[in-house]
Amino acid sequence: MILKRVLSVIIFLTCIAHIYCQIDSVVVEIEDAVVTGERGVSEASNAIRVIKVIDADDIQNSASQNLSELLRSQLNFRISNDLVLGGGLSINGLGGNNIKIMVNGVPIVGRLNGEIDLTQIQIDQYDRIEIVEGPLAVEYGTNSLAGTINLITDLKHQDQISSDCKFRYESVGAFAQSAKINASKNNSKSSLSISRNYFDGWNDGDEQWDWINDYYADSSRVNSWNPKVQNQVSFTEQYLFDNSMINARIEFNQESIENKGYPRLPFGEAAFDDEYNTSRLISSLNYKEYQDANLKWDIVSSFQKYRRTKFSYVTDLTSLEQTLQGPNEQDTTEFINLMSRGNRYFDFNKNLSLNLGWDAFHEKFSGKRMTTPKQSQFDIAAFSVIEYDSKNTKFQVGLRQAFNSNTPETVYSPSVIKLGRTIVLPSFNSLFKFSKHRIRLSYAKGFRSPTLKELHFMFVDINHDIYGNENLTPETSNYFQTNWSYIGEFNGTLRLFYNNVQNQIGLVDQLDGTFRYENFDSFLSHGSEIRLSDTFKNFKIDFSGSYVGRMNNYGRSYKSGDWYVDRELRVSMPVIIYEPDSSYTYTPEFSLSITHDIIPERLSYWGSIKYNGARERLISNGDGDIMSLIADPYSLLDASITYTSNEAKYIFQFGARNILNVTNVQTSQQQSAHSGSSSWIAWGRSYVISLSINLNKVK
Amino acid sequence: MIINRASSFYLFFLLLLHSCIEKEIPITPYEIGDIDLHTVGIGSDYSQQVYYSLSSSEVIASNPKTEWCFSLQHHNDSILMSLNSSRYMKIAKVGFDLTISITEDDLENLNWQIEPPVGGDIQAPYYYLQTNTLYILDLGRNSSGDYLGYVRLVMPEWTVSSLEFELQLSSLDFEDSNVLNVSLDSEGERSHFSAISNSIVFIEPASDLWDLWLTQYTEVLNEETEYLVTGILTPTLSTEVYKTDYSKWDSLLLADWSSLPFSNHWNEIGYDWKYYSLETGSYSIDSEILYCIRSTNGEYLLRILDFYDEFGATGTFTFECIKR
What we know:
The complex is a heterodimer of chains A (699) and B (324).
Chain A: H1 2-20, E1 33-34, E2 42-43, E3 52-54, H2 56-62, H3 67-71, E4 77-82, E5 86-91, E6 94-95, E7 99-103, E8 106-107, E9 128-133, H4 137-140, E10 147-152, E11 161-170, E12 174-185, E13 188-199, E14 215-216, E15 228-240, E16 244-259, E17 270-291, E18 294-316, E19 322-324, E20 331-347, E21 352-366, E22 374-389, E23 393-404, E24 418-419, E25 422-434, E26 437-448, H5 452-456, E27 458-460, E28 465-467, E29 475-487, E30 491-509, E31 515-536, E32 539-554, H6 563-569, E33 585-599, E34 603-612, E35 615-620, E36 626-631, E37 634-644, E38 650-657, E39 664-669, E40 678-680, E41 686-698
Parallel strand pairs in A: 7-10, 28-31
Antiparallel strand pairs in A: 1-2, 3-9, 4-5, 5-6, 7-8, 9-10, 11-12, 11-41, 12-13, 13-15, 15-16, 16-17, 17-18, 18-19, 18-20, 20-21, 21-22, 22-23, 23-25, 24-25, 25-26, 26-29, 27-28, 29-30, 30-31, 31-32, 32-33, 33-34, 34-37, 35-36, 36-39, 37-38, 38-41, 39-40
Chain B: H1 2-18, E1 24-25, E2 37-41, E3 48-53, E4 58-64, E5 70-75, E6 78-83, E7 90-95, H2 104-109, E8 113-114, E9 134-138, E10 150-154, E11 164-170, E12 177-183, E13 191-194, E14 199-201, E15 212-221, E16 225-233, E17 240-244, H3 249-254, E18 274-277, E19 282-285, E20 290-295, E21 298-308, E22 314-323
Antiparallel strand pairs in B: 2-22, 3-4, 3-15, 5-6, 5-13, 7-8, 7-9, 9-10, 10-11, 11-12, 13-14, 15-16, 17-20, 18-19, 20-21, 21-22
């Protein structure tokens, strides 16, 4: 029903746009372009923030299928894998709710346990990915304390009609197909993209080349990595007017995961199976208006719906008939989100401009274990960014005033700048250009609104007394960054940063038998980072390294955790009793990638290695305590060789992923001789074969 | 034309690969043979308490766990109290001032005790009722998690070896006061009482008629955390259990049990034959744990095989049991 409505709106806008479309276009394509947090399109080297771009070539070279696989080789990024909840992410030690993931500036909703499942985001449909480390709260609001990832689709094609399709096989038993059809006529451009990804599951000990093999309903039905099917379809329509552009996009993702259980005692004739079905609808409408080639209006609105259902069955393994288990074993989680963000740019003179904007969303959540089954919140903010831009300098001062319907004024902590029932977030960015040198200085205040779960959670039975807390104050941060870049014979960047996050939210034992979400923790990190890239002859080399220190600082000591709560809820809830020694733990990381055009524009080789240093992790042990563990260092090595035919009609790629065969990382306890645990990093070494066919180009 | 070619080409591959999904093949049903299986349920909400006889392989009696609050029995020339630990009940001894006012703040500061999971007759002389002493009973929670409140309990008079006496039960604010006339069994069987309905209830069969008590009960985990678990207790004086996970079923069946260190702890079978796996999201059974059970009705070797019913609901115990 909702899908129909959204489609109707898009069709209506399509008709309107067709009537008014004119010929001239002010949309310019800029090499090395970035858009995140910028006014329109800027060159990355002249952007006021440091923006890391993963472009289409990088995406293709990596032979990755989804965002989780792609980001695992990025500096300062750590991927976690929950075999039911999917792939999570942390940047510089902050993850989950603190990372904002957007599609063309539209934040993706549907977090489970704070994480967006990155394995659900198929990257074939995106042209580039922009990453900003540190908060972008003035422009984009909540959830960006650690960083922002913006997935960009571009309609660059100039052909009347073009199409391409891709077939991909990965030796762990993953088969993917995707196809895209692009069309242009007058001032309109359209793109339809569909893809399907089937993964048959993976176990340590599987054959290196895993094909389609039927299997008996015995213990071989159980997989360490669950089998899944993902389908995706997206449609984008773009219209160019005299001075403006409308971009309408709708995307639908569907995923089905089978979590098959072991045959049960005594006879192994039955098993408990779970099926997780996730659907995600993202529709957006973006309007841009230009004046003298400068962006004047930029308005984006979206409607999103996320739904995840869990069905639990008893499967008769002798007949494969399935019977639904009781209602307590079934679960449905749903998010519905409406969002609108607008920017109006005013140019006072050649150098001085002002951006006034709004950012608002309304979100409805329904699921189990809340004070009422349905909860909602709205958040509305106004922001202004004043920018001075001369030939060699650029200054930007931003201010955001935000109101959240669920956060009462009385509970704001001193770390929050408040104005009545609204909070105020400032930011300052500066850029100095000296010939081939760029120097940036930045400060930003970040914040994260408490989630509806943290506010309204309630799980009470004879063994549990767990509550949300309607008096939670937002998490806030102060982020400082300086950066020096050199653009010349080679490109080099040196970055220093300091991040201080206050009022982190977690579940805390109230020492009266109950647990409640509270603001209790601060997190500090600082670090340095260097990036070097150079191109010579037919080689392109990118090297980056970082050394980052992190520290959790608890406001007071907390006693007693409840591991059994975790077991019952099947969610990770940090009941902290760990008392750290209040010192930084430092982690080195480096990554190196080399691209060699063996035959220019025909045959190229790519290799990438990322070293992840040992890092502190806080996990729950079997005794109900949160413990400090040190995760072992590990390296991920990937390589690919790509052949491109004449006019790029065919692209054949052979890749090897996780060549060092790292599957999980052992953790050892920092302060005792007890054994640790392990966490999944990746499935084993795998090989990828893909064929892309660009069938036609009608000019 | 070109689009047609493209579409056909892609459609071909799409269909080709779409059909390539691994399929599961059913297994051949297992031939059960002569395994002596027992299946007993206490409800998926664990709301029942079941008395089970191994000798007759049947449920002797059952009751909702809300039906009673405490039991009394004549033991060692004293009155031994047992709490209904399936509701996470607690007791606190306040003192000799029987009319002292008790507020909610006072409740937090009392020295609360749970029913010892090993059995009140083995541990805690605390539960031997003293005369003219004020006790506060925390009635715990019902299956929905709702608090059932608090009750004052006083035994005004009692002479040693007497089986008949009065019990005074009242609400914290004395608004509701009742007197129960108690008459205990001379053989030491437990008599059960409800502090909610202020009555004597008859729920427990004679102890020689049953061996296992399947119920929720309050356990102490890691020597500090009180937690409600679901398991099997053996609260009769005549039942003893030896637990091992080192022996094989067949060899233990034939072995000499006379030298085995049997335990009379109520929770020797307990709850930890099952464990919850976060990975599978369900309970798994450690069927390697074997229990030698010695009761008035004979000797039995038992191992637990399942905690789920055919529909995947917990609360149904399936165990294999052989009489020696």
